[in-house]
């Protein structure tokens, strides 16, 4: 087991280098002209201004040169400077990462709760209307475009019904708590402001639900399949013969036995969450990495695009590694390598 | 005997139902794709009414900020989304299957290199990578499509490689090799024909996902350029006219139903080929 | 006056399917067992012997319908509210199943599983006390180092040891009745005898009523007091064990006896009854056994035999050596 984890850890730097290289290549060996983002149309006619801009952003060097410089800078934590914000990309990304993490974690909680509940219900009441309804609800989650769902729910719950707050992480009139972790829910608590904390949680509900529903479908499908298999196993009969109630049989005996694959699919669903977060953040004016990435892509802000893509890839890589390691630890009978 | 074997008497109601519903939805949108100009009463690009009119008998789904008929635009949207999705998936399958089969059957340094490229590409959250590539290629539906192929082909490469590795070990393949068949012949005649089923099921399900991804790219302005009636950019228009809810309703429902349709079909096929999961 | 037996089943019927596609897996069986008594139920796979016993305890599949009567200490179990039935299962009535590996929860320690049975029925008992009791129970079924082994998972036990764990779990609350469904089938021959000894020992110590369900009549020899032979969802013969072996009245019983492997005689081939049991739902007319019966007569194809009883020995065969007007 230790050897398996070690082997994965050793592979990590190579994969990260792969990620960096691929992100660099895919965003530079293309016809998109970064100059257009830096230099105004008027200056484009001025060869001197163009040359100066090229020198300023290192665009006058050859591609391999730029790659080597980029990787070397990256090792010191330097991802270049954003064309738009004119701040170091690493700083921008780090500043925005907590907001995304907060949203993604909340969405994961919502998504796994809904997904597990639907999966268990569907499996227990297999081939009944409950099962069909649960599967249908889950399927809608994986079929609906999150950006549209976000708009629709904002319109219904915030504008029409007025029971949930609008976009953003806090009431725009509220004073921000001192930034310590970057997690609004934690920072408000650290500031001792319970009212603000509740407001932060309140603001999380809609985006977390929109994002969570999308992964609930995947999770419920897997939970249902695993539960169907487990519910047919003999030890379920044993549990009933011991006098255990149905709730106990389903949760403590059956669901507990699907824990490992369930945790695994929840871990892997991180990719969907990061993907969905890009759009959810845009809809909900969420100041995270996703909306940063969208702004960068729209503004052809290449240092920011590459940076955010690399960070996204690394976050994704680490989560998958953690999932795999958790899988090995949680499942004593799997002995990998 | 145990009471458990009686589970085999379970009713099987769900398998055919989603497949039927899914096929119906997909067929509906296929018809729309071909007949959109005939079915819609207005031109999708022209200003045909007052701005931002709520749904009415004249404009069933209202009009947008430029006075264009949302229903007509939604119907015409199928002409962009469906073909793009089919092309992206077809290209991804072609590239992925080819490279995956090469990697699985021939192996060696080239095969390993292909798989490392697959590993690295799949290490990115797909949307983020597609966005980055689409942004550097510049806006436009074709560039968005290229970006999606770059993100998507490794999925099929991995799947195809796994299939080829499994089928390669079967007796009839070993018999063919022993009989002196050439390697390309073994691959083409004896291995590939047995590898397609999971690849095609996966491709069907992915059609829906690709439609979603394409719409997402358009939504953030990296796909179709205005005034193209593309669903994603129409929802983007709707977001700009947030209080005129109907502007985004048509395209949203369009994406929802067609993706649901493909998911139903994929689910149905999955159950059909893997009855264990019923 | 005859006392009410510990557990009795009367005309129990279990059917599956719906809307005209119904078929009966258990077609009216009558059984009873008392404290300190061992009842063997023997029959082939699919004869309905397990299904019937499970159904009596409310453990039938969701699609099954149960009719008839099953009484435990005078209380009717068929139609009893689930909640009430649960208080009996695991407490007054213990069960053991065929495959001890799949019957134990793979992700719970053995101790936790035994303790669960205790805690489910004794809200006053602490977790600690329940675990202590689990140690005692493992010792009772002769597992060495029980205080260490309660912390282990089922996959760390051997097949025979797992079945001992199942038994310990089944008797955790000193039940009155123990139902063992093929308890030795999945085990090695040498281990089978040990498990049967454990069960016999417990029966004596706890004065249990024991129902042994098996497809192997040989397992019952020397262990059961009475035997019920089940074929196609019906009891076709029932008698004291010695009586049954000496004077089997049903041709099916004779076939089962002949197919017991005999260690003392060197036979080239084991006798086995020809053919297979009829598929449920497509029973032949007349006597259900007639297509496989070596002594089949024309009447067997047309008329179903009636169960006749004489001096505690009953059989349903047209040609059973039992007087038509029994003195039962």
Automatic annotation (TrEMBL), chain A:
Domain ABC transmembrane type-1: 97-327
Topology class, membrane: Multi-pass membrane protein
GO biological process, one term: transmembrane transport
Transmembrane segments: 103-124, 136-157, 200-223, 258-284, 304-330
Entry GO CC: plasma membrane
A Pfam family this chain is assigned to: BPD_transp_1_N
UniProt keyword Nucleotide-binding, yes or no: no
Keywords from the named record: Cell membrane, Membrane, Transmembrane, Transmembrane helix, Transport
Subcellular location, record wording: Cell membrane
UniProt-listed Gene3D superfamilies: MetI-like (1.10.3720.10)
CDD domains: TM_PBP2
Listed InterPro entries: BPD_transp_1_N, MetI-like, MetI-like_sf
Lineage: superkingdom: Bacteria
Record has Lipid metabolism as a keyword: no
SUPFAM superfamilies (UniProt xref): MetI-like
Coiled-coil residue spans: none
Family label: Belongs to the binding-protein-dependent transport system permease family.
PANTHER family: DIPEPTIDE TRANSPORT SYSTEM PERMEASE PROTEIN DPPB-RELATED
Protein name per UniProt: Peptide/nickel transport system permease protein
Automatic annotation (TrEMBL), chain B:
Major site of localization recorded for this protein: membrane
Keywords carried by this UniProt record: Cell membrane, Membrane, Peptide transport, Protein transport, Transmembrane, Transmembrane helix, Transport
Topology term for the membrane: Multi-pass membrane protein
TM annotation in the entry: 12-36, 82-105, 207-225, 245-266
GO cellular component terms attached to this protein's record: plasma membrane
Compartment(s) of residence: Cell membrane
GO biological process, any: peptide transport
InterPro entries per the UniProt record, alphabetical: BP-dependent_transpt_permease, MetI-like, MetI-like_sf
Gene3D superfamilies noted in UniProt: MetI-like (1.10.3720.10)
Signal sequence region: none
Family: Belongs to the binding-protein-dependent transport system permease family.
Organism of provenance: Ancylobacter tetraedralis
Location of the ABC transmembrane type-1 domain: 78-266
SUPFAM superfamilies in the cross-refs: MetI-like
Record's protein name: Peptide/nickel transport system permease protein
From TrEMBL, chain C:
Residue intervals of the ABC transporter domain: 7-257
Membrane topology: Peripheral membrane protein
GO MF terms, alphabetically ordered: ATP binding; ATP hydrolysis activity
A GO CC term attached to the entry: plasma membrane
Location of the protein in the cell: Cell inner membrane
Gene3D superfamilies to which the protein is assigned, alphabetical: P-loop containing nucleotide triphosphate hydrolases (3.40.50.300)
GO biological processes: peptide transport; transmembrane transport
Cited PROSITE patterns: ABC_TRANSPORTER_1, ABC_TRANSPORTER_2
Highest taxon listed in the record's lineage: Bacteria
Keyword Transit peptide on entry: no
Key words of the record: ATP-binding, Cell membrane, Membrane, Nucleotide-binding, Transport
Stored InterPro entries: AAA+_ATPase, ABC_Ni/Peptide_Import, ABC_transporter-like_ATP-bd, ABC_transporter-like_CS, Oligopep_ABC_C, P-loop_NTPase
Keyword Membrane in record: yes
Main location: membrane
Family: Belongs to the ABC transporter superfamily.
Protein name per its UniProtKB record: Oligopeptide/dipeptide ABC transporter ATP-binding protein
Species this chain originates from: Ancylobacter tetraedralis
């Amino acid at each position: 087991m230790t050897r398996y984890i070690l082997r994965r850890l050793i592979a990590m730097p190579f994969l990260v280098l792969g990620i960096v290289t691929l992100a660099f290549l895919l965003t530079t060996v293309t016809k998109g002209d970064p100059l257009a983002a830096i230099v105004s149309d008027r200056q484009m006619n001025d060869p001197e201004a163009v040359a100066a801009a090229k020198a300023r952003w290192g665009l006058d060097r050859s591609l391999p040169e730029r790659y080597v410089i980029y990787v070397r800078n990256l090792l010191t934590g330097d991802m270049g400077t954003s064309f738009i914000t004119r701040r170091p990309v690493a700083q921008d990304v780090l500043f925005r990462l907590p907001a995304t993490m907060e949203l993604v974690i909340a969405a994961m909680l919502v998504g796994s709760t809904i997904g597990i509940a639907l999966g268990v219900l569907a499996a227990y009441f297999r081939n009944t209307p409950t099962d069909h309804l649960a599967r249908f609800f889950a399927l809608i989650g994986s079929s609906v475009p999150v950006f549209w769902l976000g708009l629709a729910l904002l319109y219904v719950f915030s504008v029409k019904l007025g029971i949930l707050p609008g976009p953003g992480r806090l009431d725009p009139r509220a004073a921000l708590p001192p930034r310590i972790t970057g997690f609004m829910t934690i920072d408000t608590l650290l500031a001792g402001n319970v009212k603000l904390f509740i407001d932060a949680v309140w603001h999380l509900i809609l985006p977390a639900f929109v994002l969570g529903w999308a992964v609930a479908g995947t999770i419920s499908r897997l939970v249902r399949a695993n539960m169907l298999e487990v519910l047919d196993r003999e030890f379920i009969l044993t549990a009933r013969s011991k006098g255990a109630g149905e709730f106990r049989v389903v949760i403590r005996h059956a669901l507990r036995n699907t824990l490992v694959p369930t945790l695994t699919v929840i871990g892997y669903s991180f990719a969907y969450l990061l993907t969905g977060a890009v759009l959810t953040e845009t809809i909900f004016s969420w100041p995270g990495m996703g909306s940063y990435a969208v702004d960068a892509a729209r503004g052809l802000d290449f240092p920011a695009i590459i940076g955010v893509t690399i960070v996204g890839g690394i976050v994704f890589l680490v989560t998958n590694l953690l999932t795999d390691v958790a899988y090995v630890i949680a499942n004593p009978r799997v002995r990998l390598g | 005997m145990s009471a458990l074997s009686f589970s085999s008497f379970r009713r099987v109601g769900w398998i055919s139902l989603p497949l039927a519903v899914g096929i119906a939805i997909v067929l509906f949108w296929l018809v729309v794709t071909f007949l959109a100009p005939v079915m819609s009463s207005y031109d999708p690009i022209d200003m045909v009414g007052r701005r931002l009119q709520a749904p009415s008998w004249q404009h069933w789904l209202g009009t947008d900020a430029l006075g264009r008929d949302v229903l007509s635009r939604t119907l015409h949207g199928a002409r962009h989304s469906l073909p793009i999705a089919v092309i992206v998936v077809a290209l991804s399958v072609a590239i992925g299957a080819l490279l995956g089969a090469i990697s699985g059957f021939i192996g060696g340094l080239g095969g390993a290199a292909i798989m490392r490229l697959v590993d690295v590409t799949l290490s990115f959250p797909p949307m983020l990578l597609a966005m980055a590539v689409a942004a550097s290629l510049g806006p436009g539906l074709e560039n968005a499509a290229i970006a999606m192929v770059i993100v998507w082909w490794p999925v099929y490469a991995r799947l195809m490689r796994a299939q080829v590795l499994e089928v390669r070990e079967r007796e009839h393949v070993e018999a063919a090799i022993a009989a002196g068949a050439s390697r390309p012949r073994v691959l083409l005649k004896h291995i590939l024909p047995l590898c397609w089923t999971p690849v095609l099921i996966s491709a069907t399900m992915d059609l829906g996902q690709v439609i979603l991804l394409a719409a997402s790219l358009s939504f953030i302005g990296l796909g179709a350029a205005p005034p193209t009636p593309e669903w994603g950019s129409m929802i983007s228009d709707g977001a700009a006219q947030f209080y005129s809810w109907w502007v985004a309703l048509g395209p949203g429902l369009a994406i929802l139903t067609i993706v649901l349709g493909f998911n139903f079909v994929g689910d149905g096929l999955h159950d059909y080929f893997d009855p264990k999961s019923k | 006056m005859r006392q009410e037996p510990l557990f009795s089943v009367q005309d129990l019927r279990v059917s599956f399917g719906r809307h005209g596609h119904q078929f009966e897996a258990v077609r009216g069986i009558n059984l009873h067992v008392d404290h300190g008594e061992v009842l063997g139920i023997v029959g082939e796979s699919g004869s309905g012997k397990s299904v019937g016993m499970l159904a009596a305890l409310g453990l039938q599949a969701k699609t099954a319908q149960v009719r008839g009567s099953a009484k435990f200490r005078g209380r009717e179990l068929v139609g009893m509210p689930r909640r009430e039935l649960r208080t009996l299962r695991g407490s007054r009535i213990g069960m053991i199943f065929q495959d001890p590996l799949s019957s134990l929860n793979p992700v719970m320690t053995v101790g936790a599983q035994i303790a669960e049975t205790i805690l489910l029925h004794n809200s006053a008992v602490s977790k600690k006390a329940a675990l202590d009791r689990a140690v005692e129970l493992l010792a009772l079924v002769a597992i060495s180092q029980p205080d260490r082994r309660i912390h282990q998972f089922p996959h760390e036990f051997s097949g025979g040891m797992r079945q001992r764990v199942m038994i310990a779990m089944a008797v955790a609350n000193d039940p009155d009745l123990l139902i063992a469904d093929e308890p030795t089938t999945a085990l090695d021959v040498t281990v089978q005898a040990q498990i049967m000894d454990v069960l016999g020992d417990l029966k004596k110590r706890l004065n249990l009523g024991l129902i042994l369900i098996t497809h192997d009549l040989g397992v019952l020899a020397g262990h059961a007091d009475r035997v019920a032979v089940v074929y196609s969802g019906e009891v076709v013969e029932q008698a004291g064990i010695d009586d049954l072996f000496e004077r089997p009245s049903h041709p099916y019983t004779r076939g089962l006896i002949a197919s017991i492997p005999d260690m003392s005689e060197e036979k080239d081939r084991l006798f086995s009854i020809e053919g297979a049991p009829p598929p449920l739902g497509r029973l032949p007319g007349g006597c259900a056994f007639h297509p496989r019966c070596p002594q089949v007569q024309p009447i067997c194809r047309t008329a179903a035999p009636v169960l006749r009883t004489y001096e505690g020995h009953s059989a349903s065969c047209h040609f059973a050596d039992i007087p038509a007007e029994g003195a039962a």
